[in-house]
Amino acid sequence: MTASLFNIGQAASQSGVSAKMIRHYESLGLLPTVPRTDAGYRQYGESEIHTLRFIRRARALGFSMAEIAELLKLWQDKRRASADVKRIALAHVADLERRIAEMQAMRQTLAQLAHCCQGNHRPDCPILSELAG
CA-CA distance, 63 to 25, in Å (whole number)? Predict the structure, then answer.
C-alpha cells in the first residue's frame, strides 16, 4: 500500500495552514523540500502534514520562527533532553509576561489621558499634548 500524497491545496486543508504559508515555511527551511510531480506540483506526505500542524500550533502560542525552528529540531530528535524544550517554553513565557506588562502600562496611560480629555468642541486635548510631548 502506498502512502497518501497531497498537493499543496490538500496539504493546506489537512494542516490548517494556508498554501502561501506552506511555501513560506519551506523557504525558511522549517519544512523540508518535498518531491514534485513531473508537472512540478509539490507532493506532501503525512509527515509533512504533521510538521505543518506542529508549526501551526507553535505559531498559535506565539513562538517566533527561530523558536519554532529550534522546537522542530528538538521534536525530531528522539534523544533530546526535555530540559531544552522547557528552557525555550519558559523563555517564551517570560517574554509574554514582559509584553503583557508593557501593554497594561500603555492601556493605563491611554485610559488616564482619555479620562483627562474633555471630549468637547474645544481644541485643547491632553492626548495630543502627550503625543506631541
Answer: 14
CATH top-level class of 1-80: mainly alpha
Conformational region of residue 34, where left means phi above 0, alpha means psi within -120 to 50, and beta covers everything else:
beta
Q: Where are the domains of the chain?
A: 1-80, 81-133
Question: Is residue 15 exposed (0-12), middle (13-18) or buried (19+ Cβ within 10 Å)?
Answer: buried
Q: What cell was used for 120?
A: 468637547
pLDDT in tens, the chain (133 residues): 557 999 999 999 999 999 999 999 999 999 988 999 999 999 999 999 999 999 999 999 999 999 999 999 999 999 999 999 999 999 999 999 999 999 999 999 999 999 998 888 888 898 999 899 8
Closest CA relative to residue 43, chosen from 32, 35, 31: 35
Question: Is residue 29 a contact partner of residue 67, using CB atoms and an 8 Å limit?
Answer: no
DSSP sequence for 2-50: PPP-B-HHHHHHHHT--HHHHHHHHHHTSSPPPPB-TT--B-B-HHHHH
